[in-house]
Write a structure and sequence with these properties.
The complex is a heterodimer. By secondary structure, chain A is α+β, with helices and mostly antiparallel strands. Chain A is built from seven helices and eight strands; from the N terminus they run H-E-E-E-E-H-E-H-E-H-E-E-H-H-H. Classes of the chains: A alpha+beta, B alpha+beta.
């Protein structure tokens, strides 16, 4: 049953975008069975957000099946009655309650993301993709599965007031954005950065890193463009999903 | 952003009747090349670009509409642009500014080149970030021995001044490693540039895997390097010409819409 006629048009659009992001994570090989989660704040309802129903694979998520809950953890709409992942609730409520400027949060456990998250050196300024995160990626120490709500304070402290991306050490990646496309593009760039870094470092050979002045310059170029690249790319991603399997928008 | 949101591939009309036969053929081959780069897992969302010069035309080349993914590109969707950046095809899409910088640099600097192809692949970026660069350790790498340039990273290529340095670093080569960034190959025709990017990509992949093992890597014997170099120098674009019709047959079986 579709929720389309039962929710505000703004909420419906956000549901469709977020469901699309789940499908795209699957398409780009960034899923981990039923683990990890992507969230979005409900437009006009600063205290409420959408999260995946726990037990659905990313390729099965639809706009109507997303669970709506408050930042305090009250479930407001749960079409399938599956509830949410409690670690997901901890991580996503931490980011969304700590940062009014962010409306979408994405978390993955990818092979390359976990690998870089476990390196003492962290993310290196090694590729054009990594320039997006130069001096603007946070690090959060691993505390075990995030079912302890006390971890929210540490997550908020580590993300800080400005950064949109965070390496969850020994765990995976987290990106956020003002919109679903913004957070998804950050996730793709961070994933690509990690893949190239793992490949280059696996050689054991000396790396040719981007000089700091060039990294500063390039990061400024990207910051000046804001969400332009993500906004430009998102319609094409929806076209791709519409060709492959349009059920995300159900 | 209103213009971008409304730009949709379905709004594009066929330009087949509006362009010369030479331009149409170039458009079909270039669209095929975009599809093949995607098929061989060398695309990077909306980033990177492939350009082609139209036979018989001076100072113009074709580039991709910024906003269409490589698997969506069609012959009619490609945008003709001149060296001054004037857009000569009616289109709701923009050009990628960095794409214009890189490809106009190649086309202006090298009249012998008719196609330039740029990628951001995992293995390509990784090798681009190694001080040692590309090693002569596979048959795939042999054609690039003493035959590939290196260009230092300067940030997103929006500054047209970078063109001079791109031209200098490409020199007389057909292939260029963009440090901390990716790969670029050029060809006498579209099939040739694709052939070279495929070989360079495979060379990078094998190098990463070979070096990742942590054991000593065997480099090709210097004498064999020399003889192989001579062999490849004689072949020119033979590999590209031989392989191209089969690539088009594959696309025709999979999804012939690149010809639209």
């Amino acid at each position: 049953m579709s929720l389309k006629s039962k929710v505000a048009p703004e909420e419906w659009k956000m549901r469709v975008d977020l469901a699309a992001a789940y499908r795209l994570c699957e398409f780009y090989d960034m899923t981990d069975l039923t683990g990890t989660h992507l969230s979005a704040r409900v437009p006009g309802e600063a205290n409420n957000f959408l999260l995946n129903p726990y037990g659905l694979y990313f390729e099965e998520v639809t706009a109507s099946s997303l669970v709506k809950l408050s930042l305090d953890g009250d479930v407001l709409e749960d079409h399938l009655g599956l509830g949410v992942n409690s670690a997901g609730y901890t991580i996503h409520s931490a980011v969304l309650s700590g940062r009014d400027d962010l409306n979408a949060v994405m978390h993955t456990h990818t092979r390359a993301g976990i690998a870089v998250s476990s390196m003492e050196c962290g993310l290196l300024p090694m590729s054009q993709h990594s320039m997006h995160f130069h001096k603007s990626v946070s690090y959060h120490d691993y505390e075990g599965v995030a079912v302890n709500l006390d971890e929210r304070e540490m997550l908020q402290r580590d993300l800080g007031p400005k950064n949109k991306a965070m390496m969850l050490k020994n765990h995976g990646l987290l990106t956020s954005g003002v919109s679903v496309p913004d957070a998804f593009y950050a996730l793709m760039r961070l994933e690509k950065s990690c893949q190239a870094q793992v490949d280059a470092m696996s050689t054991g050979a000396e790396l040719h890193l981007v000089p700091e002045a060039v990294s500063d310059h390039t990061n400024g170029q990207f910051k000046n463009r804001g969400t332009e690249l993500a906004d430009r790319g998102w319609p094409g991603h929806l076209r791709r999903l519409d060709r492959m399997d349009p059920t995300y928008a159900d | 952003m209103a213009v971008l949101a409304s730009a949709h591939p379905d709004d594009l009309c066929s330009v087949r009747d509006q362009v010369s036969d030479e331009e149409w053929q170039t458009r079909v081959d270039l669209a095929a090349c975009y599809r093949l780069v995607d098929y061989y897992d060398m695309s990077d969302l909306l980033g990177t670009h492939i350009s082609a010069r139209i036979p018989g035309e001076k100072n113009t080349f074709l580039l991709n509409p910024y906003g269409m993914y490589f698997d969506e590109i069609t012959a009619s969707s490609l945008i003709k642009v001149d060296y001054d950046g004037n857009v000569l095809t009616e289109t709701p899409f923009d050009l990628n500014k960095a794409g214009f910088t890189i490809h106009s640099a190649v086309m202006m600097g090298r009249p012998d080149i008719n196609c330039a192809l740029h990628t951001h692949t995992r293995a390509g970026i990784a090798v681009s970030a190694l001080k040692c660069g590309l090693l002569p350790m596979s048959q795939h790498s042999a054609r690039f021995i003493d035959n590939i340039g290196y260009h230092d990273y300067e940030g997103v290529a929006h500054d047209h001044d970078e063109r001079e340095r791109l031209q200098r670093d490409l020199g007389d080569y057909l292939s260029l490693i963009l440090r901390n960034h990716g790969l670029l190959t050029c060809g006498y025709n579209i099939g040739h540039a694709f052939w070279l990017i495929y070989k360079l990509e495979r060379a990078c992949q094998a190098q990463i895997d070979g070096m990742a093992a942590g054991t000593k890597v065997i480099e090709i014997d210097r004498g064999v390097q020399e003889s192989t170099k001579e062999l490849f120098a004689k072949k020119k674009s033979a590999g590209g010409d031989l392989g191209w019709p089969g690539h088009l047959r594959r696309l025709d079986r999979m999804d012939p819409s690149y010809k639209n």
